[in-house]
Structure formats: structure tokens, C-alpha cells
Amino acid sequence: MLGIFGGTFDPVHHGHLRPVLEVQQALNMAGMRLVPAKVPPHRPQPRLAADARLHLLRLAAADYHGFSVDTRELQRSGPSYMVDTLASLRAESGADDALCLILGMDAFLGLPTWYRWRELERYAHIVVLNRPGSRRPVNGEFRDWLAERELRTPAGLREAPAGRVWFQPVTQLDISATSVRRLIAQGRSAQFLMPLACWRLMAREGWYGYPQVG
Ligand code: ATP
Fold first, then answer.
1. Secondary structure (DSSP) of 43-99
2. pLDDT score, position 78
3. Where do the domains of the chain lie, and which CATH numbers do they carry?
């Protein structure tokens, strides 16, 4: 079983890394692919160029043996649609291996706005990084879609290669890339919100207008 965690990673931070590590260990996944997006279709364009975001993500992934960085979205022309990414991962993995798309709760709640979102279940399960007592989908159609697919135990993820939804409780870290960028814009430090190697590179390169360290 393989985990797939996409994002802009502008920049990567511990709010990404720790919950995803916990998912991988809790569900005993063989690996976790971190997939940086080139042109996120639903969002403003990233502040940092793709190669700089990739450099940071590679440094972060190097700290944990279960993580690897998958650059297929950066290599593809046009927008990075998750449905295309999952289709190509499915073509590589064969029909039987379970694939799990990992989404934060905010991303999950926005799922019905994604390009061809209903096709995602053909290729992968969805694992949501859950906060106890968090808001569930309220929109009728999405709520009904979820009710038909939500698992009561994670064992169901291994009973089919795709098509189920599991809410995995994880440690919640209230960190976002937006808050990291905002801190730096205010001339404050982002140290300890991300791996040390990432922070050092950002500071050295002056990315996001980071104040240079002495
Ligand atoms: P931004 O602040 O620029 O929107 P972000 O920090 O939310 O960025 P993204 O790269 O947009 O990071 O998110 C990639 C994935 O990580 C999404 O599924 C998102 O829900 C999830 N995510 C981001 N931050 C956290 C966090 N602190 N805890 C759990 N999931 C998170």
C-alpha cells in the first residue's frame, strides 16, 4: 500500500510532515510519495519557483526513510490535476495494489471543486488527516457520496485497491505555508516550523525575503 501526498509545498513545513509520517506508520504503508504541484489549478500561483520548492521538499524527505519525492507533476506540461497524477501512478502500480491519496481536512472539504473529482476513486482511496470533532461535509451531495464510501476501520483499505475513504486521527499542528510566509514577511523567524535543513536553505538564499543570517 502506497501513500500519495500532493501539495504546493510553498514551503514544506512540519504541519505537512508529521501527520503524514503518522499516517504511514499507522496504516503500515510501504512508502509515501510527496508530490509537489507545478500549477495548482484552484489556487494563486506559488511564491517560490518549482525548483526551489522541490529543493526544500527533497531536504525534508531525506530526514525520513519512508518518504520519497515524486516529480511527475513538475515534468508534465499544463496544470497539475490530481486525477492525472493518480491515473499515472495506478498505471505503474498495476491494478491490485492499494493507493491512498492523503488529504488534509481543508483539502478534503474542497474536493468537489477539483477537476474530474468523481474519477479519483477509480485510482485510489482517500485518507483524510483527521482532527477529532472536526467539521464534516455538510453539502448534501458530497455528504451522501462520503456516506457510501467511508470506512469504519482502516482494514477496509486493504480489501480493495481504491474507492474508500478513511479518516485517520493524527497529531494536529496548526502550521500553514501561508503563516510561514507571513512570519518571514514580518521579519520574524520560521525556525522550528520546518526541518532545520529547509530553514537554513531558505535563510541562506533569502527566499520569501528571509532576513539573511550572519
Ligand atoms: P498554503 O498555506 O499556502 O495554502 P498549506 O500549508 O496548506 O499551504 P499545501 O501545500 O497547500 O500547504 O497543502 C498540501 C496538503 O497538506 C493539503 O492536503 C493540506 O490540507 C495539507 N496540510 C497543510 N498544512 C497542514 C497541517 N498543518 N495539518 C494537516 N494537513 C495540512
1. SPPPSS-HHHHHHHHHHHHTT-TTEEE--HHHHSSS---HHHHHHHHHHHH-SSS-E
2. 82
3. 2-174 (3.40.50.620)
